[in-house]
Amino acid sequence: MRADGRKTGSCLCGKVSFQVDQEIEKFSVCHCHSCRRWASGPYFATDCGKHVEFSGEDNIGRFQSSSWAERGFCKICGTSLFYYLLPTGHYMMSVGTFDEQNGLDMKMQGFMEEKPDGYDFANACEKLTGEEVFAKYAPKQ
Quick one: which of 8, 5, 26 has its CA closest to 17? Predict the structure, then answer.
């Protein structure tokens, strides 16, 4: 974290970096098939809202993985950077890209019905099915 309170991060090669202007204390884990394939395991993300400032934006690739979201990645090193919610404009930034990752608490695990049986997290947190995730977080239309 910078002296002014902003959280910073980058991809593996450093060609893309970012700053987030809000307090980040919690993260969620997604076990859905798409996230696991994209992140090569469960996807750890934190909601950074609409105001993420990027450097090296020319190196960001975007893939529209559904009608409601894009996945952002570094075109140079392949780092999974964010899950972008099209209806709300919110960035769900990959926790592993932050320079400082200590002090974050797991608040929720989603798509529990899609989680493979080879791992379990011991964290005490909310555990939701995919249907429950959409009911709770999907934008109302």
Answer: 8
Burial 21-53 (b: 16+ CB within 10 A, else e): eeebeebbbbbbebbbebbeebbbbbbbeeebe
Instruction: Specify the pairing of strand 105-110 against strand 126-127.
Output: parallel
Q: What is the mean pLDDT of residues 35-54?
A: 95
For the chain, domain boundaries:
7-120
Sign of CA dihedral 70, 48, 35, 99: positive
Task: Identify whether the C-beta of residue 106 lies closer than 8 Å to the C-beta of residue 27.
Answer: yes
Q: Is 100 helix (H, G, I), strand (E, B) or coil?
A: coil
Q: Which of the two residues, 35 and 22, has the higher pLDDT score?
A: 35
Tell me: domain 7-120, CATH 3.20.20.10, correct?
Answer: no
Q: What pTM, to 2 d.p., does this model score? A: 0.90
The phi and psi torsions of 123 (rounded to 5 degrees) equal -55, 135
Strand order in the sheet with 17-20: 7-10, 17-20, 52-55
pLDDT in tens, 58-103: 999 999 999 989 999 999 999 999 999 999 999 999 999 999 999 9
